[in-house]
Amino acid sequence: MSIPESLDSAPGESFLNPREEPYRSRTDQKPSSKFDVSPSSEPWPSLSTSTVGQEAHAPDLDSFENGWNLPNETTGELVELFFDNVQSWLPIIYRPSFDEKFMRLEAPTKTVVNGQSIDPAEVFMITSMFAIAARFSTSPFFKDIAPPDRGDVFATRAATIKDGIIKTIDEPSLEFVKGLVILAFYHFAAGQLAPGSVLTSVCVRFAYDLSLDEVDEDQINDDGTLNDDSLDDVDAWVRREELRRLWWSIWELDTFVATLSRQPYGIERGEMKVFLPVSDHQWVSRTPIRSSPVAYRPDTVWKSLQGSPNQAARAWFLVTNYLMSCIAHAGRQPSRISPDTRAGLESALCCLKLSLPTEFQLRSLYIGQKNFPEGNWIISTHLMILA
C-alpha cells in the first residue's frame, strides 16, 4: 500500500456526532433536561445548519499569537470537550500524560501550551482534537457558526499540517498516527467517506510500520496459550494498553470502511497478536489486569473473553464487531458459502449472545452520567448483533 503524496481533505457541510439524539428536530430549541444523557451533563448543541443564502462566517484563526490562533480559554475548553464527549467512544488519548505535557493552568482555567513550542505532529493531533470537539463549544468565538460547521476550519488546518509532515516522514510518531485516526473519525462522522477512507488506508499502513499488530506477541505462545508474566511494571502496562487502543481504533476504521464499501479489508481477518482493551477506568487509574486476544476463527471468536479477567464492555463490542465483519465478508460471496459454513456462523452468533456478561442484560440496564461510556458500548453491541 503506497502513501499518497498529498491527502487533501475538503471539509464537508456538516458534522453530526454519532452520539447525538437521532430524532431531535433541527431547531435552536434546547431539549428538556429530563431527557439529557450527554456525558458532559450539558444539553447537546443545536443541530441547526446554515439556511440557503445564509453563509457561516469562519472565525479568524490568525488573530492570536499562542500558536493555535484561538483565545487561550477556548483551547482549554475544546480539550475538555474532547475528553467529555469524544474520548468515551474514541479512547486513544491517555489523559494524565496529555495533561502533564500539553496543559497549563492559567487561572481560572486550563489552557493548551503554545503551539509553537511543540512538535508539528503534536500540533496536528491537537488540531484534530479541536476539529472533532468544536461542535460542542459554547464559546462566543463560534457564535456566528452553526455547531455542525465549527470543526471545518480545524479539519482544514489539520489537513495542511498533515500534508507537510507526510511528505518528509520516515517513521510516524504515535501522536501523528493518533491525529490521523481522530481526523478520519471526524470525516466519517461528518459524512465525508472519501477523505475518511484515504486517511484510514494511511492509518493501516502506519499501524503495520509501527508493528501495532504485534503489541503482545511476547505474551502469546505458539499454541495460543498466554504467558503468565507479571503485571508489576505499571508504566509498561499503561504504555502497552495505549498501543492496543490505537490498534483497535484503526481496526474499527478499516472494518467500517470495508464493510460499508464492500471492498477488501486492509487488515486481514486473521490472527492479531494484540490483547483486547480493558476498561477506561482501569487504564486511567493504572490498574493492570490480564486481557486476551481475539480468537480469530469465526466459529470460536465468541470464546475470546471466556475466563478472562477483562470483561470490559468495549472489549465485548470489538469481539462482536469482529464476528460481524466475518459474516459480512461471507455475505459478499453467498454462492461460495457452504451450508456448513453458514450454519457455523449462525451458531457462533447465537453462542456470542449467550456468552455476554450479565451487565449486558438490557432489562436491567440503566444509563446515567457515570456509566454512559459502558452503556454506549453495551447498546452498540446489541445493535451489532441485531444487524
Automatic annotation (TrEMBL):
Domain of life where this protein originates: Eukaryota
Pfam entry (one): Fungal_trans
MF GO annotations: DNA binding; DNA-binding transcription factor activity, RNA polymerase II-specific; zinc ion binding
Keyword annotations: Metal-binding, Nucleus, Transcription, Transcription regulation
A single cellular component GO annotation: nucleus
Domain Xylanolytic transcriptional activator regulatory per the UniProt entry, residue ranges: 196-283
A single GO BP: DNA-templated transcription
Compositionally biased spans, kind Basic and acidic residues: 18-33
Subcellular location: Nucleus
Polar residues composition bias: residue spans: 38-53
Entry-linked InterPro entries: TF_fung (IPR050815), XnlR_reg_dom (IPR007219)
CDD domains assigned: fungal_TF_MHR
Disordered: annotated span: 1-69
Protein name: Xylanolytic transcriptional activator regulatory domain-containing protein
